[in-house]
Each structure stands twice: as structure tokens, then as C-alpha cells.
Amino acid sequence: MNIIINHDYRSDMTQDLPLEALARMVLEHEEMPANTEVSVTFVDNEEIARLNEEYRGKEGPTDVLSFECDGLFDEMEDSEGFGAEIFELGDIVIAVDVVERQAGGYGNTFEQEVQLMLVHGLLHLCGYDHIEDDEAEEMESLQADLLAAWSAQA
Fold it and tell me: At the top level of CATH, which class does the domain 2-153 belong to?
């Protein structure tokens, strides 16, 4: 698996976090193929707000956005990604300033909140959502389980 981390904004806050290993753990749990590639980019509020408006039609910054690339949820057997040299699962964009503010509000450390956003974004790329209550419950439960497993091995 290839996990690309782009510390485009406030790298002093993010560059020492073990995010590649956490992403790999989540992707392996979800049985993604070994040729899976995902990128994670840390941005400022202006960039996340621009992306939020452009792709979701919502104004203002948000904490995390996920963008699917290779169509995992087309017919699996027919998905070009599963037979391709590189299966580009998608891109995750995380707003450092939003995450920093949220962490304090939720009683988390910055690192814990970044980990939550990474797991959340990856689960979206793996097909989970939280539009309906039952979907939200399933996704939140899985997030909690994955983060607990991560904490236990750290």
C-alpha cells in the first residue's frame, strides 16, 4: 500500500504523527488490495472552504473531505483498480486549523483529532457514510473500534 502524506500547511503540527501506519491498519482492516494508494493532504481553512463549496455546495471550512478516485463501488470485479498496477482509492483533505479547534472542544488532543479525521476520511473512501442514522451508528462504532485498536498497539 502506498500512503502519501502531504504536509502542505503547518507541517510542524503534522509531520511527526504516525499517520501512514494508522492508514495502513484501516485499509488492511477493510481488506483493500495491496496496490492501494491514498493521499492525505493538510490544508488551511481557505483551501478546505474552497473545496467544500466546489464539491459539496457548502460554504465555509469543514474538518475533512474525501474524494474517491478509482470507483471502488462500481462493480468490484470490473473496477479497473482491482486489476490495475496502482489502485487509487482516493484523496483525503484535512483542515489543520479546524481540527485544532475541534480537538479542544471535544476534549481530544490534536493528535487524537487528526487520527479521528484520518480514520473517518478513509472509511468514507471504503464506502461508509453517515447520512442515515443506522449508517452513522455503524460508521461511528467502527471508527471507535479502529481507534481503540490503534491506541492499544501504540
Answer: alpha beta
